[in-house]
């Protein structure tokens, strides 16, 4: 089956879960704000388990090389997004919510279950490269934008549970530590829940947003167009002209993992941070929801174009 069709099927399954989250809020079973408690489970339990589980594979020099390659590309992609946003800001005068929603993607929630389905669990480790780069930038660049300051909170970066999980995973991978099966099976089970729970939370957030009003505001479409189409296409063009997939063995698949992270909707964590700092969380939620809805169509198209060009 064509990879775009497999991707579309997996995305549709996740969005059905999102719709169910929307329904349980609309019928009054739960309130939209209840999603904060579930988000805590996602951030502090499921995501760390997913990260650690992705490193529980047999050590291989090929994997190490691929992981370094994925890190380099991920860093360059984020630099590209930040520069593009800075340049476009001079023309379109973005507010802070628009800037962070354009730059940061929902890779952590969407990419891992999708990669696991279309390429296999052995490829999930490469998605951690993009995720760790984004986590560091969320607590440096993004945090500074939201607070309106340039101070970098190193302590928060080091003590972030997801960063700690990456260090633990790397130790397990590098030193080839074999954990008891009861632990590995438990971590695997919890980690596999990340995608469904993430989409359930997205659906619950949608419960407090007027879906009809989302489709009425032209500015929303413009931000979505940048996040889901323009930025991914610019990234793809650069990958194409540099022939980046030829740099290492299995380069096309590893690049596709990073590229898939680039084409996902706006980052859910960004909206949580905006809410924490008492900024325009409603606007950010609207961008998150609309980019999430539109990505049902755009992600398979972007990956289809990738497969043609790369």
Structural description of this entry:
- By secondary structure, the protein is mostly helical.
- The chain has one domain (about 5-25, about 35-310): Na+/H+ antiporter like fold, CATH 1.20.1530.
- Helices cover about 80% and strands about 0% of the residues.
- The protein is globular.
The CATH architecture designation is: Up-down Bundle
- Helix % is over 70%
Topology-level CATH name: Na+/H+ antiporter like fold
* Average pLDDT figure: 86
**Secondary-structure element order, as H and E?**
HHHHHHHHHHHHHHH
Shape: globular
How much is the radius of gyration in Å?
A: 19 Å
The low-confidence parts are none
Question: Which strand-content bin applies to the residues?
Answer: under 5%
Task: Give the number of helices.
Answer: 15
Helix/strand structural class:
mainly alpha
Whole-number count of domains: 1
Highest CATH level, the class = Mainly Alpha
Largest sheet: none
What oligomeric state is this?
A: single chain
Report the count of strand segments: 0
Compute the separation of the termini in Å.
Answer: 19 Å
């Amino acid at each position: 089956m064509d990879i775009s069709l497999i991707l579309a099927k997996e995305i549709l399954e996740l969005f059905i879960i999102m719709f169910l989250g929307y329904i349980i809020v609309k019928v009054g079973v739960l309130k939209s704000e209840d999603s904060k408690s579930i988000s805590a489970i996602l951030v502090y339990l499921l995501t760390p388990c997913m990260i650690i589980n992705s490193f529980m594979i047999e050590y291989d020099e090929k994997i190490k090389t691929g992981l370094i390659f994925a890190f380099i590309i991920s860093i360059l992609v984020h630099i590209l997004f930040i520069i593009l946003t800075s340049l476009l800001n001079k023309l379109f005068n973005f507010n802070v919510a628009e800037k962070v929603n354009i730059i940061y993607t929902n890779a952590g929630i969407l990419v891992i279950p999708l990669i696991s389905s279309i390429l296999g669990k052995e490829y999930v480790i490469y998605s951690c490269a993009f995720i760790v780069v984004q986590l560091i930038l969320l607590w440096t660049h993004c945090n500074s934008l939201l607070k309106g300051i340039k101070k970098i909170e190193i302590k928060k970066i080091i003590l972030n549970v997801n960063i700690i999980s990456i260090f633990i995973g790397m130790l397990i991978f590098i030193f080839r530590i074999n954990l008891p099966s009861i632990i590995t099976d438990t971590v695997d089970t919890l980690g596999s829940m990340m995608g469904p729970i993430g989409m359930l939370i997205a659906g619950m957030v949608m419960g407090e947003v007027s879906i009809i009003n989302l489709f009425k505001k032209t500015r929303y479409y413009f931000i979505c167009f940048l996040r889901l189409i323009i930025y991914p296409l610019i990234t793809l063009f650069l990958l194409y002209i540099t022939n980046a997939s030829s740099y290492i063995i299995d380069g096309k698949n590893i690049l596709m993992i990073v590229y898939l992270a680039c084409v996902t909707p706006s980052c859910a964590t960004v909206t949580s941070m905006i809410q924490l700092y008492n900024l325009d969380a409603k606007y950010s939620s609207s961008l998150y929801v609309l980019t999430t809805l539109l990505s049902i169509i755009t992600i398979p198209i972007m990956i289809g174009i990738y497969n043609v060009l790369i």
